[in-house]
Design goal:
- The complex is a heterotrimer of chains A (about 300), B (about 230) and C (about 325).
- Chain A has about 300 residues and is mainly α.
- Chain A has one domain.
- A two-stranded antiparallel ribbon of chain A has the order 1-4. Chain A has a two-stranded antiparallel ribbon with strand order 2-3.
- Chain A is globular.
- Chain B has one domain: P-loop containing nucleotide triphosphate hydrolases (Rossmann fold, 3-Layer(aba) Sandwich), CATH 3.40.50.300.
- Helix content of chain B is about 35%, strand content about 25%.
- In chain B, helix 3 runs parallel beside helix 6.
- The longest helix of chain B is centred in the C-terminal third of the chain and has 16 residues.
- The mean pLDDT of chain B is about 90.
- Chain C has one domain.
- In chain C, helix 2 packs across helix 11.
- The longest helix of chain C has about 35 residues.
- The radius of gyration of chain C is 21 Å and the shape is globular.
- Classes of the chains: A mainly alpha (about 300), B alpha/beta (about 230), C mainly alpha (about 325).
- Chains in contact: A-B, A-C.
- The interface between A and C is large, with 45 and 42 residues.
Chain lengths: ~300, ~230, ~325
């Protein structure tokens, strides 16, 4: 098969993986703009969510909770419940971690927070590895057949349609939250000017907690969806996606959640399409190269403001 | 009885002492202007009153309550609002959203209050859905003052409200300040070019090198030749 | 007495590794401790130095290798210098697009370059022998010293066991001396740079870059110089590592060993203080090696023990950041003015 005929199929893969990256990217972007630092633990928070989901899924299967597949999907209501609970638990974990670690370092500035997040990343990854081991764990064992997409020369699985639709729904939800709710507006206000937010009487501690709830919850969903797409997860899951997410966030304009979504989808597509032209071994470097080119041409990103 | 009473306050940044035993008072519904040359400590005084800096010596009382050392978010709940000189708006939020943020701690329906503020600043009503970052300096200043008014404060601190504005716009801001004052709000203004500000002030203070120099009614300060020569540009 | 020789030999081995980390910490100290550059891709420069030196000094490809290039059999010192130069050049390339931007970008770019270097090492088999790595990397003067020790043992058959054990590891003693000499020379250089007017400028950049720029200093040039010098020192560290380990592969330069440990060493020892950087290397490597002994008594598997130890090091970093951010030896601020 020549490189060109592969492209429609690779585009489909790219949109799927870009949707997953975008859910991670929103959290990175919000943490950056509201808490003021690049959170290197975000990938491992995704992995944490995926493993919490895996644990819950195992628990539900053990107690015989309905796991008949929903329509054409390869998973049942037990999976949906596990995903929702994992998102909640991951969000709760992030609030606790913020209290214990980041909150106490906020006065020390962004670089120290970044460094603490690197320590957290390694800590989380190895806590996961301690309990689940380094080997891959299957997320969903059922085999699913990809069906042709009418009009283009590509196939898609119903699970992948689910991933894309869920990502769109969640992005729309985040948009509505930021645009129309009091807390969402306060988050944008704090991202604009944290000092003024405090002077105005905005409860910045609550804004920060909500930032972790949204970032952590979406990260867990992204990790679980990555498990669905890849069929299995390893403790390295988050670390492997982190560089792509950062590249997407910078590409879109760091600190702008809408830019992060666009940037992550572009990165997802570029990574997949690149495999038609270069060795798949270099797929993880594609995001990095795009990021460096963007930094050279337009450091503020697609939607970014001047710093 | 005074609304705000600053008594012998010494304050600064870290080890650097900027204010030395400064005292001042603002009565209910007064307009008080602090004038003084660049670096006299005017902004430092504002920040200290509002709890952004903690005084090392002295007390600050507001409504008979000792607020020395309280954090800004506590002080704002007591009915004092602060409009910083720069970065005093949320640029990516709309006018309406900026005002809503000013009312963050209010749990009641504040749509009437927003309406009152639009009546004070009619231009903002027309631009309620515009992002403030794209608006002119004068309009931004109005948004900032409107935001500060959302909690029905009894005292507003304005740090150089007319700085960097064209004279015509500055005049308009001062008109609005008078209008705000007429709704019963006391105002403490810091100004560098303070003639206009003193004209509408009940009283004024002259601050130099971090200490009190003079205090008098606004009019007397304006007419004082020495003050005029030293601090009001002749 | 046998224990004595065994323990002493272990200490030598320990000190060679800790000393090598000391070199890497010094390189990081000049970047982070002096100038405040947040390089979290130390592993990239470390790997680059190791591979460059191994390819310059090592043997030509053998029949069973996937590699078809490299292995020039040059002297060790050429490898050491080559490692430094290649790392310096890569530092220039990475510094130009990122050093004018916020610290976050340098962090992400350096981690990206470290991962990309690992990908190149895994994929470009013609040069690197892929995941199998480079083997039979020669150690300097190995034949002379090890051969000499063997000859001495053969000539003196009646040696007591402990003396025999010590002489057998004579090469390790030599290598330790080599590591310490390199470490000491680099320490003197870095210390001198720190005291020179150059050092005052970069420390000023760390404190307040805008203010330093307003004094008319080209802060970008100073930051680039720092990045390059630090990267060169890391390259030397890589070379020192490769010629002792004699075998390197992409797995040797994973982020934990190649970057994270070094950061913990520098932060624990004291950012901005060169003695602190070296002290931190020995202390953290001591903790890391010590926990290996400890976890043997835990009812956990080997992989679980490894995870537990990494969690412990991560916790150590957070504890230092929270309760003693200046590290054991605080920076020498008295030299600032």
């Amino acid at each position: 098969m020549s490189a060109i005929t592969q492209i429609p199929q690779l585009l489909v893969y790219g949109i799927v993986s870009g949707s997953i990256l975008a859910l991670g990217g929103i959290g990175v972007s919000l943490t950056y703009s509201i808490l003021g630092f690049s959170n290197f633990a975000h990938g491992d928070i995704m992995a944490l969510g995926a493993y919490i989901g895996l644990g819950l899924l195992g628990l539900f299967t053990a107690v015989g909770l309905a796991d008949t597949p929903l329509g054409p999907l390869s998973f049942g209501p037990g999976f949906i419940l596990a995903m929702v609970l994992a998102a909640g638990l991951t969000a709760a974990a992030m609030i606790i971690i913020d209290r214990l670690l980041f909150r106490k370092l906020r006065h020390a500035g962004p670089i120290i927070l970044m460094m603490a997040s690197i320590g957290l990343a390694l800590g989380l990854r190895n806590v996961i590895q301690f309990f689940w081991g380094p080997q891959p764990h299957y997320y969903i064992a059922r085999i699913q057949v990809a069906v042709p997409i009418p009009g283009i020369d590509a196939r898609i699985k119903s699970d992948e349609v689910f991933i894309i639709v869920l990502a769109i729904v969640l992005v729309a939800g985040v948009h509505a939250f930021l645009r129309y709710t009091k807390m969402g507006k306060a988050m944008r206000a704090m991202a604009d000017n944290a000092a003024l937010a405090r002077v105005t009487g905005i409860n910045t501690d609550r804004v920060i907690a909500w930032t972790w709830v949204i970032g952590g919850g979406l990260a867990a969903v992204a990790g679980i969806l990555a498990g669905v797409e890849n069929k299995f997860i390893t403790p390295q899951l988050g670390w492997q996606m982190l560089l792509s997410i950062f590249a997407g966030v910078i590409l879109g304009g760091i600190g702008n959640p809408y830019g992060a979504i666009i940037g992550c989808v572009i990165i997802g597509i570029s990574e997949e399409v690149s495999t038609a032209f270069i060795s798949t071994g270099y797929k993880p470097a594609v995001a990095f190269v795009i990021m460096i080119l963007m930094l050279l041409v337009r450091p503020t990103g697609i939607l970014g403001r001047k710093a | 009885m005074s609304l705000l009473k600053v008594d012998g306050v010494t304050s600064g940044y870290g080890d650097m002492e900027v204010l030395h035993t400064v005292s001042l008072e603002v009565g209910p519904q007064e307009i008080v202007t602090i004038i003084g040359p660049n670096g006299a400590g005017k902004s430092t005084l504002m920040k200290t009153i509002f709890g952004l800096l903690a005084p090392s010596v002295g007390t600050i009382r507001f409504n008979e309550q000792n607020i020395t050392g309280l954090s800004p978010d506590r002080i704002v709940r007591l009915g004092m609002a602060y409009v910083p000189q720069v970065e005093n708006i949320f640029p990516s939020l709309t006018v309406q959203e900026n005002l809503e943020m000013g009312a963050f701690i209010r749990t009641d329906d504040f749509s009437d209050r927003i309406d009152e503020i639009y009546s004070l600043f009619p231009v903002l009503r027309r631009r309620r859905t515009q992002r403030v970052g794209k608006m002119s300096g004068g309009e931004r200043q109005m948004v900032a003052m409107g935001r500060a008014l959302m909690l029905d404060p009894t005292l507003i601190l304005l740090d150089e409200p007319s700085a960097a504005l064209a004279p015509k716009l500055a005049m308009e801001i001062f008109e609005r300040i008078t209008a705000i004052n007429e709704t019963g709000v006391a105002i403490l203004i810091v100004e560098q070019n303070a003639k206009e500000s003193l004209r509408l002030s009940t009283r004024g203070y002259v601050l130099a090198a971090g200490s009190n120099r003079f205090t008098d009614t606004g009019r007397s300060l304006l007419e004082n030749e020495e003050i005029g020569r030293l601090y009001l540009g002749g | 007495m046998e224990h004595f020789a065994g323990i002493l030999n272990y200490i030598v081995f320990f000190a060679i590794t800790a000393g090598t980390y000391g070199i890497l910490s010094l390189g990081l100290n000049i970047q982070w401790g002096y100038t405040g550059l947040f390089n979290i891709g130390v592993a990239g420069f470390y790997a680059l130095g190791a591979y460059t030196s191994a390819l310059l000094v090592g043997p030509a490809p053998s029949a069973w290798e996937e590699r078809t290039f490299g292995g020039f059999g040059l002297p060790f010192i050429v490898g050491l210098i080559g490692a430094a130069l290649v790392c310096g050049i890569v530092a220039i390339i990475i510094g130009i697009p990122t050093l004018r931007l916020r610290a976050d970008y340098l962090a992400i770019a350096t981690i990206g370059i470290a991962e990309s270097i690992r990908l190149v090492l895994s994929n470009e088999s013609w040069l690197t022998n892929g995941v199998w790595g480079l083997q039979q990397i020669p150690s300097p003067l190995y034949k002379t010293i090890h051969g000499g020790a063997d000859a001495f043992i053969n000539a003196h058959p009646g040696l007591p066991q402990w003396l025999h054990d010590l002489i057998v590891s004579a090469y390790d003693w030599f290598y330790l001396a080599l590591v310490l000499v390199v470490l000491f020379v680099l320490y003197l250089i870095v210390e001198r740079l720190g005291r020179a007017p150059w050092g005052r400028v970069v420390r000023a950049i760390r404190e307040d870059e805008d203010a330093t720029a307003m004094l008319g200093k080209n802060t970008f040039a100073f930051k680039l110089q720092t990045l390059v010098i630090g990267a060169m020192i890391m390259g030397i560290g890589g070379s020192i590592y490769a010629h002792y380990a004699r075998f390197i592969s992409p797995a040797s330069f994973k982020p934990f060993y190649g970057t994270f440990l070094i950061w913990v060493m520098l932060i624990l020892g004291g950012s901005g203080n060169n003695r602190g950087a070296i002290l931190g290397s020995f202390v953290v490597w001591g903790i890391w090696a010590g926990t290996e002994f400890l976890t043997r008594y835990f009812p956990v598997s080997a992989t679980q023990a490894a995870s537990l130890r990494i969690v412990l090091i991560a916790l150590l970093l957070e504890v230092v950041l929270l309760w003693r951010p200046q590290g054991i030896l605080p920076p020498c601020t008295k030299k600032l003015e």
